[in-house]
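Handout, section B. The chain below has 348 residues.
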Amino acid sequence: MRLSPRRLNRTLLQRQHLLARTDATPHEVVRHLVGLQAQENLPPYLSLAARLRSFDPHDVSAGLEDRSLVRLLTMRGTVHLLVADDALTLRQWTAPVHEREIRLSQSIGPARDVDREAFLEALAELLADGPQPQKALGLALAERFAGPTATQLGQLARSAAPLVQCPPRGTWRGSGGVVYQYVDRWLGRPLVEPDVEEIVRRYLRAYGPATAADVTAWSAVTRLGPVVKAIDDLVVHEDEHGKPVYDLPGLELADEDAPAPVRLLGQYDNVWLSHAARDRVTTPETRSLWMGTNGGLASTIFADGMLVGLWRPTNGRVEILSTVRDLTRQERSELDDEVARVDELLAR
């Protein structure tokens, strides 16, 4: 079946719970989406508020504190909010991504050249008695490895080892810097070898139909073409250009005329970061509006399934910055409703 861009858009939004909110729990949505982009503290809360019919941000804080949720460097070498089981698997799967980061990152710099075995032994020794603040960890490593700065050695640690960001980092209204511990030690369970085929299936369930290149855009893990082709029960559709896109059997394709209500999302959300062309919900023009030299410039407004504007939290309230087109009367009404919802969230 040939799928139009609009049908792919609506199907993605449907699987992301962005056409209609769900009664699922925050943990269920985090698991379904295979993690939420969380390099900043606020975006995962906005991602959940946009998808859940009822959402208490303190449920996420409780999850971080009881260790059923964790913050960990995984897909694309960025911090994600994950359920505990996924943290133990996805960190293993994305290990090559972190090795590339070590080779290329300016923030790691000459720290990449230290003796890796000795470095990991020192790190294990420093974390043996419990979690350590990133700054203290870097300073202690600098006493053992001459040359690189403490900051560079701290950056190496977060990429070279599976270090979870311990709470209160990432909790609602929580304050404090990054504190690290090994994720397996934090969770009291060993790391698990990934089932790559199952990860691809879960990606398709939340982001499909899609290609192997799309899975790579989402994860930064390469050489997935043979994996996708080896899953012999996948359904093969075509996009508007006749290019094959893969899906799980039995999954519904949304009607391209399905209404896509206004949603306010954060500065980062995997819904527009997880396809190779990054065009399912954005255009090059709107992406350039959002994208600065060092990442996203502001939080995002979606209408009719596409990124149409920017907003930011100002003094605990939503401030609309700009839109790329005039909104319809219906969209303006929906935007007012969404602003009220997010204002209520920000005030909690």
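Note. Residues 263-346 form one domain. Compare this with the example in section A.
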